[in-house]
Amino acid sequence: MHNEDTWIEPVLARHLGPATAPEGLWERIGEPRLPRAAVSSVRLAWAFAGVLVVAVLLWGFHLRGEASVENQALEFRSDKADQIQAWVKTNTGLEVPLHASASAGLIGVGVVKNGAPAARIVYRVGAKDVALLVASVGTAPALAASTGDKIFSWTARGQRYTVECADADELKMGCLLCHAGA
Amino acid sequence: MEKSGRFPGPPPSYGFGMVLDANDREVIEACRRGDYDAFRVLFEAHKDRVYSIALRYSGDAATAMDIAQETFLKLLSSIQDFRGGASFESWLYRVVVNACLDHHRRGRRLIPFFDSLIEAVKAPAENILNKLMRAEEEQDVQRMVAKLCPEQRIVVVLRYTEGLSYEQIAELVGCSTGTVASRLNRAHKVLERRLSHLRMRGGSSA
């Protein structure tokens, strides 16, 4: 007869006693394989790592779309069209007609040295940066081929103009560079 | 400790087998040198204890195998950290207890185990009814213990599977003996309620 208050104790003692380890345990130690839960964790970790890599790549592409245009060194920063125009003339010999635009703000300019120097003028259109590459007609194809971004090119007055954007949908923003009212 | 669920702290200074005999010390030293045969000796000496704790804590033989495997792999990989002056026994307990809690924390669903039922069916026809009843009772007990919260469950297992004293459990768990007593008491109340049908039956004796 168990004590009124402690009847559970002998029951626990009887059923929670020591057990004998199965024979197969040493094989699992000697030839370690990951426990099932650990395998699950490892799979989860790999899945997480995979998702992380994809996310980083996507984010990288996104940033590249936004930043690649700008991150290429700007040698002169200004939001004044006449200052940019003068700097381009001095450093590349190119005459680039720039128009003031409420939709596309100038950020700065750099020189691309790929054969004959070309000007790379960077605008901010909305939240995106757009680059306008200007080169003499003879050097323009090489410039276009060197970029990884979406491009749209045209020729005017003996110069090749190339708009460089992160993706095709944004090319229309390039129109704002010359057509401020567009 | 309560929040983290792990049992930290320095090796216990009393309560367990404090002094390793020369043979034990030699085996552990050999393990620390990377002697795999010595590790086998250590494994053979402690496998039942580790497995018992894992089984009674998890309530599932397959999960217990996982926990035991993790425990020995942990021992193998961290035996270098074991300081000879400390109690190996308490260190072993700590590793297996943490393996139990880690397994629980990983969200592993603990399921009732039916091994005892299978064993009972395999038994000779003689006494088969008693064996089945006992197996059923054991299954009930194990299932209800597995439903206790981790803090209560580990105390119950250390108490009833290992027969540790309140002081030893308190040292392992990192709490006061009063807390151990309180957790055990609460666990008893819960189990008495959930296993009340066993009391009516009087419990099938061995």
Protein described:
Chain A is built from 6 helices and 6 strands. Chain A has helices at residues 8-15, 24-30, 36-71, 81-92, 140-145, 171-178, and strands spanning 76-77, 104-114, 116-125, 128-136, 150-156, 159-165. The N and C termini of chain A lie far apart (96 Å). In chain A, 25% of the residues are buried. Chain B has helices spanning 22-32, 36-58, 61-78, 88-105, 115-122, 128-146, 150-160, 166-173, 177-194, 196-201. Chain B is 68% helix and 0% strand. Chain B contains 10 helices and no strands.
Q: Give the end-to-end Cα distance of chain A, rounded to a whole number of Å.
A: 96 Å
Number of strands of chain A: 6
Using the alpha-carbon principal axes, give the shape of chain A.
rod-shaped
Read across the widest sheet of chain A, the strand sequence of neighbours is 1-2-3-4-6-5
- Binned, the helix content of chain B reads 55-70%
How many DSSP H or I helices of chain B?
10
Q: Which pair of chains has the greatest number of interface residues, and how are they split between the two chains?
A: A-B, 31 and 43 residues
What's the overall average pLDDT of chain A, rounded?
A: 71
Order of helices and strands of chain B: HHHHHHHHHH
Order of helices and strands of chain A: HHHEHEEEHEEH
Range of strand content of chain A: 25-35%
Structural class of chain B: mainly alpha
Radius of gyration of chain A: 33 Å
Question: How is the biggest beta sheet of chain A arranged?
Answer: 6 strands, antiparallel
Question: Strand-residue fraction of chain B?
Answer: under 5%
Number of helices of chain A: 6
Radius of gyration of chain B: 18 Å
Describe the largest sheet of chain B.
Answer: none
